[in-house]
UniProtKB/TrEMBL annotation, chains A, B:
Pathway: Purine metabolism; urate degradation; (S)-allantoin from urate: step 3/3. It comes from Sinocyclocheilus anshuiensis. Catalyzes the stereoselective decarboxylation of 2-oxo-4-hydroxy-4-carboxy-5-ureidoimidazoline (OHCU) to (S)-allantoin. GO terms for cellular component: peroxisome. It is found in: Peroxisome. GO terms for molecular function: 2-oxo-4-hydroxy-4-carboxy-5-ureidoimidazoline decarboxylase activity. Its EC number is 4.1.1.97. Its main location: other. This is 2-oxo-4-hydroxy-4-carboxy-5-ureidoimidazoline decarboxylase. One of its GO terms (biological process) is purine nucleobase metabolic process. SUPFAM superfamilies: UraD-Like.
Length: 174, 174
C-alpha cells in the first residue's frame, strides 16, 4: 500500500473502502478521515482506537451492539456482512453440529442477558474451542471489565480488516 | 406509541427499529439503548442529541459524512436508504430538470471541497428552492460554524424519522 494513495482519497472513497473496518460503524472511519494525512497504516489504526476509546461507555456498548452474534441468526439467515461471514466461517462457526449450535445459542443468550451487548471476539485469531471457552469464562466478568475486554477484541478485528484491505489492490475496491 | 413497549425492546429490536434515525449510524441508537428506561419519545431524542453533541469535531464530521449528497450519485443509482429516498423525493430532488441537476452537482461539489463533508439539510422541512438558496448561503460559513449548522439539521432529520417510526405500528416493523 502506498499511504499517499490513501491520503488522496475523498471521504466518499475512504468510507467506501474502510467503512466496515469496525462492524456496521462507518461513522468511525468517516470521522478519522478528518485526521489526514496519515503517516502509515498503523497511524490509521491508532486514530480508530483513539476514537473508540474516547467514546462514553454507552458509545463503546453501541459499537459492540452493532456486532452480530457468533453462529447466530444473521449467520443462519445469510444477513452477515461479507467481513463477518468470512471471519465466522474461518473460525468454524458455519459448520457447527446441532449440539454445538445449541451450546453457542445458550451461551450467547446468557451473555447478552448479563451484559446487554453481544459477545465479540476476534474470530480469526481463535479456534472454535477457544471461542466457546472464552465465552464461558468472560461471562464471569463484571460489566465494566467485560466492556473493555470486548472493545479490545473490536480493535483486533479492525486491525485485521484494515490489513486485509490494504494488502489487496486498493483500486479494485473503489 | 406506548413508551413501555419501546423500553421492553431488546437492543437487537431497538436497533432494528431505530437503526437509521441518524443516517447510516446505527452506533448512535445502539449506544443510547444503555440509557433505558426512556420517559418518552422526547427523552430518546434528547439522548441522541446529547450523544452527537458529545462527539469530538471529527466525530460530528463523521456523522455528516455518512449522509448522501442531495440529488447526488446515490439517488441516481438507487442506493439511497429508504428514509433518504423518501425525504429527497418529498423535497423534489427526484424530479429536477437537467439545469437544476447540474446546479445541485456544482454546489454540492463546491461545498464538499470547502468543508470535507456533504451538505446536510432536513429535506422534509424545505422546498427545492429553499434547499438551493441555503446551500449557496451556507457555503459562505466557516468550517466550525457550518459543522454545527449541519449537525442541527441532522437532529431535525432524526426527530422526524423518530416520529415517523413511533406513529406507525411498532410491531409491524420488527
Amino acid at each position: 500500500m502506498d499511504i499517499n494513495v490513501v491520503n488522496a482519497l475523498t471521504y466518499e472513497d475512504f468510507v467506501k473502502l474502510f467503512g466496515n473496518v469496525v462492524e456496521k460503524c462507518p461513522l468511525i472511519p468517516a470521522a478519522i478521515w478528518s485526521h489526514r494525512p496519515f503517516k502509515d497504516l498503523a497511524d490509521i489504526e491508532a486514530h480508530i482506537k483513539e476514537f473508540i476509546h474516547s467514546l462514553p461507555d454507552s458509545g463503546k456498548e453501541g459499537v459492540l451492539r452493532c456486532h452480530p452474534d457468533l453462529a447466530g441468526l444473521d449467520l443462519q439467515s445469510g444477513t452477515l456482512t461479507r467481513e463477518s461471514q468470512e471471519e465466522q466461517s474461518q473460525a468454524g462457526m458455519t459448520t457447527l453440529d446441532s449440539a454445538e449450535s445449541l451450546q453457542m445459542y445458550r451461551l450467547n443468550t446468557e451473555y447478552k442477558e448479563r451484559f446487554g451487548f453481544p459477545f465479540v471476539i476476534c474470530a480469526r485469531l481463535n479456534s472454535k474451542a477457544d471461542i466457546v471457552r472464552q465465552l464461558s469464562e468472560r461471562l464471569k466478568n463484571d460489566r465494566a471489565a467485560e466492556r473493555e475486554r470486548a472493545v479490545e477484541e473490536v480493535t483486533k478485528i479492525c486491525s485485521l480488516r484494515l490489513r486485509n484491505i490494504v494488502l489487496s489492490d486498493i483500486q479494485t475496491k473503489l
